[in-house]
């Protein structure tokens, strides 16, 4: 019986926790907002529609090429002057690739390992540079987007203006965050130029979707602008009893009474219905993943409701000082039932014993960031000095209970099996607050930019765990204090080449208690050395970047079988150290001839230096040493015979990796292909101006191989084809 418990616990944990280890525009005044690129009436030569980017991280971009953002420094800074690896997914990339999940959005960015957990529409779990960033590295509009357990905010790509990505430890500005870096999701904002869009989609697995996006001034006289984005989807998936239904609405308003003051309000509400589990059965006798759905179609519902309301305020006090305040309150509620088949029945091996459970999680987070920016000179030195104080308050509550599901019949695996009502047996309530103060100075002298930043954080976490059967309460309190910093030097040549070198640190508090020592976990800490070069080609809309990095992470958490007084259990322990070294190369271009391209190569050597005895010196599971990708899109010119047509194609190479930290199993290498095509009906007649038909396909050749992470195996998501008809006016 103990052996069965040891085998079952990681499977349940993978099911519940989602397979994860726990500006433009600051000065833009609508400059020629709707310039057309060759053959594409929807593209803009510069994405300068946003009324005011504030400090939310909005990207200055020309087609596929992002050149500036506030993500790397919390003040709008050219990428060439940012002494750290930074890249972007622009609005035009989103339009051409039509991604349906956050993982699709990030699929062509260097260092990003997506789909390590195969098909699973419940969570956007991913890693970068070998480190998981699901809980610590996702930000929204430059503010932390917290997560806990299964409470992970879902991202609707249609609500995004773009994504700005800062790789490597970044706590000097952002506080508690991971070693891999941060992904700043940028919400669509109001535009000065009127925007109207309606779209319908139909795709694989009976996917029906309608969406709209309206924006512009409220009227001709008041300095108030609006944006309203919405979506409604009804869809099955490749897995029985796992829908992908969503309702989404996102209103936004900007008030700009004068050139020195602006206030933008951003809101969102969404409801998503999917399955409590989407996993395939792993055969414990062979160690391989099967094609059998491990859940129970009659007991597999998951409904997540989330909402957020925030604002970005900016006021320029005088020629030197600017004050900014960004704030947001977010709520998330997830109710889910799940069942999980874990082993053959002792009497009848065609039946698989199954566990079941239910949970109700609620998460509320309030985040506020106050910034004072000073721009001044001291002799020959130009300064951009940033001082700030931010605060995060999080409350997480979870009710959960476990039970038994009738065995799964392998001869009829899609048959639902009634499950008796399961009562909640435990309650966890966690309150956490974080207060941080930071200072950064960007000092420019001639072609040199020296960036230095320091921050100090105080974090307090209280966790109450109640056994509802006995009303026994266990309380764990922990307080963490941490200093973090960054220093980097950049040199810009006259011909667009910018080499840089930097050092940065990060930390991430770990909630919970180490049951091996009965002490709270220490924060996980990391430090990085990076050297790189960025090249913005003169007279060509092309940006090429390369970076060498070395990251050391200490106080890592692992799951390990430990002999406790109650018997052996697979628990979380802390004695780890991971080192990730690698090289990244990225190129983005959008040319006047209608061709746009993104390409990247990543080499990652992520090893466990300290941890469980059977993992020391091994590679981190599911982190390929080699990854490469390329996506190209070509729109035929107006004066050619194919006017109105456009074609895109992409390939994503994933090298082989290990399926567990013991390095006893391997994931094979693979190449996944994507494709797209569109036709603008204006080519037939100008009266059809703004009408466009587009078809996108991911995993075109339907490769559904096994992929294993931390010893549990999944299957790659199969082919998806989506057709969309869009009308803009």
UniProtKB/TrEMBL annotation:
<dbReference type="GO" id="GO:0015344">
    <property type="term" value="F:siderophore uptake transmembrane transporter activity"/>
</dbReference>
<dbReference type="GO" id="GO:0038023">
    <property type="term" value="F:signaling receptor activity"/>
</dbReference>
<dbReference type="InterPro" id="IPR037066">
    <property type="entry name" value="Plug_dom_sf"/>
</dbReference>
<dbReference type="InterPro" id="IPR039426">
    <property type="entry name" value="TonB-dep_rcpt-like"/>
</dbReference>
<feature type="domain" description="TonB-dependent receptor plug">
    <location>
        <begin position="81"/>
        <end position="181"/>
    </location>
</feature>
<feature type="domain" description="TonB-dependent receptor-like beta-barrel">
    <location>
        <begin position="255"/>
        <end position="700"/>
    </location>
</feature>
<dbReference type="InterPro" id="IPR036942">
    <property type="entry name" value="Beta-barrel_TonB_sf"/>
</dbReference>
<keyword id="KW-0998">Cell outer membrane</keyword>
<keyword id="KW-0812">Transmembrane</keyword>
<keyword id="KW-0408">Iron</keyword>
<dbReference type="Pfam" id="PF00593">
    <property type="entry name" value="TonB_dep_Rec_b-barrel"/>
</dbReference>
<dbReference type="InterPro" id="IPR000531">
    <property type="entry name" value="Beta-barrel_TonB"/>
</dbReference>
<dbReference type="InterPro" id="IPR012910">
    <property type="entry name" value="Plug_dom"/>
</dbReference>
<keyword id="KW-0675">Receptor</keyword>
<dbReference type="GO" id="GO:0009279">
    <property type="term" value="C:cell outer membrane"/>
</dbReference>
<keyword id="KW-0732">Signal</keyword>
<keyword id="KW-0472">Membrane</keyword>
<keyword id="KW-1134">Transmembrane beta strand</keyword>
<keyword id="KW-0410">Iron transport</keyword>
<comment type="similarity">
    <text>Belongs to the TonB-dependent receptor family.</text>
</comment>
<feature type="signal peptide">
    <location>
        <begin position="1"/>
        <end position="30"/>
    </location>
</feature>
<keyword id="KW-0813">Transport</keyword>
<keyword id="KW-0406">Ion transport</keyword>
<protein>
    <submittedName>
        <fullName>Ferrichrysobactin receptor</fullName>
    </submittedName>
</protein>
<dbReference type="GO" id="GO:0015891">
    <property type="term" value="P:siderophore transport"/>
</dbReference>
<keyword id="KW-0798">TonB box</keyword>
<dbReference type="InterPro" id="IPR010105">
    <property type="entry name" value="TonB_sidphr_rcpt"/>
</dbReference>
<dbReference type="Pfam" id="PF07715">
    <property type="entry name" value="Plug"/>
</dbReference>
